Amino acid sequence: MTKSRSENELTPELALRRLLHAQGLRFARRPRDLPGNPELVLPKRNSVVFVHGCFWHGHDCRTSRAAPNFKVGSWAEKIAANRARDRQQQAELQAAGWQVETVWECQIDQSALIARMVERLRQR
Ligand SMILES: [Zn+2]
After folding, report:
1. Which of 34, 49, 66, 99 is most buried, taking the most CB atoms under 10 A from its CB?
2. What is the C-alpha separation between 100 and 85, in angstroms, rounded?
3. Nearest partner of 52 among 39, 69, 34, judged by Cα
4. Three-state DSSP string of the chain
5. C-alpha 53 to ligand 1 mean position (Å)
6. How far apart are CA 98 and CA 100, in angstroms?
7. How far is the centre of ligand 1, averaged over its atoms, from the C-alpha of 62 (Å)?
8. Ligand 1: distance of its center to the CA of 2 in Å?
9. 72 CA to middle of ligand 1, Å?
10. What is the spatial distance between Cα 100 and Cα 9, in angstroms, rounded to a whole number?
11. What distance in angstroms lies between residue 81's CA and the mean position of ligand 1's atoms?
């Protein structure tokens, strides 16, 4: 049986949801009433999780540096604006008592790093 491309494709967000679910962590997806619309919210643990694309959110990593025009022109301005907005939204969330986790697209496969985040979430 062949599956369509969309069924097989594991987005970073979906990969993370599966992992947290497998670890027994329960979450809500994309509530609309929080600054920045974090991908996942764990109300019992006062935590929100963002999954950020490296290019658009200006991660300083190989993935985004490899993209053309990362540091010049209108892309750079847009990315700088995204970063400023991310920082602002994170500050608003923290002021409201949320603990903010950010998972970068390039980190989804780094199981040790994700495992540490899962551990932090469990302890809250
Ligand atoms: Zn990255």
Report:
1. 49
2. 14
3. 39
4. CCCCHHHHCCCHHHHHHHHHHHCCCCCEECCCCCCCCCCEEEHHHCEEEEEECCCCCCCCCHHHHCCCCCCCHHHHHHHHHHHHHHHHHHHHHHHCCCEEEEEEHHHCCCHHHHHHHHHHHHCC
5. 7
6. 6
7. 7
8. 32
9. 18
10. 27
11. 17
Distance from residue 55's CA to the centre of ligand 1 (Å): 7
Q: Which one, of 45, 62, 46, lies nearest residue 54 by Cα? A: 62
Amino acid at the residue 88: Q
How remote is the CA of residue 46 from the centroid of ligand 1, in Å? 25
Using one digit for the tens of pLDDT, what is the confidence trace for 51-94?
A: 999 989 999 998 888 877 666 778 888 999 999 999 999 999 99
Structure tokens at 43: 């109300």
* CATH number of the CATH domain containing 11: 3.40.960.10
Distance of CA 65 from the midpoint of ligand 1 (Å): 9
Domain of 13, in residue numbers: 5-123
Give how many domains the chain has, as a whole number.
Answer: 1
